[in-house]
């Protein structure tokens, strides 16, 4: 790999800033100062140091984040803090959310720089179940609850859609708290499903994706890397 590319891959420097750092004598290769940006290096064996710090390539990462409210999943900076801003890792900006959560939705958010793994999680073909806990504005119990459970199981026609939602599972945890398990990812789907049932979602939390549940030890805003066993679930 070219040295300037290696610097841009392993540090905050862009390619142009990496070339400038080389010209300024800020980089050593195997203990020797080097200024040629096109120098080819062995990324496994050569030792590259930038301003006293040894650099190493960043491998693929798999992150579980307990997303809090007022955090968005966009790559671009907007009105709210981004999910990747909460991840204290080198080159965190390379991490991409695996699916998305609305800015006011909390819970399990996965991030990775492994595009194939992300596709396996999000592809409709794999029908990966996602479980949400919704706090509802209006109570649902008795016959109304039974009707809603049946409607969700049969599929709902959402406003502006032309096809029914895929069969889903609704379970009432209390008259105003519901657990909804879906296998799709339509725009604002959970909120729109409850709207189709004549209700309104006051707050929404994603508790699991497939067989992977949000770590109960993670407070909102906290994250950890997935274990090998968890990565292999998808």
Automatic annotation (TrEMBL):
- Top enzyme class, one word, equals isomerase
Its EC number is: 5.4.99.-
Say which domain of life the source belongs to.
Bacteria
The record lists the catalysed reaction(s) as: uridine(516) in 16S rRNA = pseudouridine(516) in 16S rRNA
| Keywords tagged on the record | Isomerase, RNA-binding
Pfam families according to UniProt: PseudoU_synth_2 (PF00849), S4 (PF01479)
Asked whether the UniProt record includes Nucleotide-binding among its keywords, one would answer: no
- InterPro entries assigned to the protein according to its UniProt record, in alphabetical order: PsdUridine_s_RsuA/RluB/E/F_cat, PsdUridine_synth_cat_dom_sf, PsdUridine_synth_RsuA/RluA, PsdUridine_synth_RsuA/RluB/E/F, PsdUridine_synth_RsuA/RluB_CS, RsuA_PseudoU_synthase, S4_RNA-bd, S4_RNA-bd_sf
Annotated RNA-binding S4 domain ranges read 1-63
**MF GO annotations:** 16S rRNA pseudouridine(516) synthase activity; RNA binding
Whether Isomerase counts among this entry's keywords is yes
A Gene Ontology biological process noted in the UniProt record is: enzyme-directed rRNA pseudouridine synthesis
Residue runs in coiled coils? none
- Free-text function comment from the UniProt entry: Responsible for synthesis of pseudouridine from uracil-516 in 16S ribosomal RNA.
| Family indicated by similarity | Belongs to the pseudouridine synthase RsuA family.
NCBIfam families found in the cross-reference section = pseudouridine synthase (TIGR00093)
Which protein, by its recorded name, is this? Pseudouridine synthase
* Protein source organism: Vreelandella maris
């Amino acid at each position: 790999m070219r040295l300037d590319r290696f610097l841009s891959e392993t540090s905050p420097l862009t390619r142009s800033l990496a070339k400038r750092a080389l010209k300024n004598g800020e980089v050593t290769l195997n203990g020797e100062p080097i200024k040629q940006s096109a120098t080819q290096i062995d990324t496994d064996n050569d030792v590259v140091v930038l301003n006293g710090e040894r650099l190493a390539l960043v491998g693929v990462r798999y992150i579980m984040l307990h997303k809090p409210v007022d955090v968005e999943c966009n790559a671009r900076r907007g009105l709210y803090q981004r999910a990747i801003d909460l991840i204290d890792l080198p080159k965190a900006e390379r991490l991409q959310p695996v699916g998305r959560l609305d800015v006011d939705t909390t819970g399990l958010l996965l991030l990775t720089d492994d595009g194939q793994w992300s596709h396996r999680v999000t592809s409709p073909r794999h029908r990966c179940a996602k479980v949400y806990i919704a706090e509802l504005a209006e109570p649902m119990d008795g016959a109304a609850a039974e009707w809603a459970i049946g409607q969700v199981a049969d599929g709902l026609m959402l406003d502006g859609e032309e096809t029914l939602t895929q069969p889903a599972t609704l379970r009432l945890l209390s008259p105003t708290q519901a657990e909804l398990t879906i296998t799709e990812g339509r725009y604002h789907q959970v909120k729109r499903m409850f709207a189709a049932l004549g209700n309104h979602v006051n707050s929404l939390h994603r508790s699991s994706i497939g067989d992977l549940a949000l770590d109960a030890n993670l407070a909102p805003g906290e994250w950890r890397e997935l274990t090998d066993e968890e990565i292999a679930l998808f």
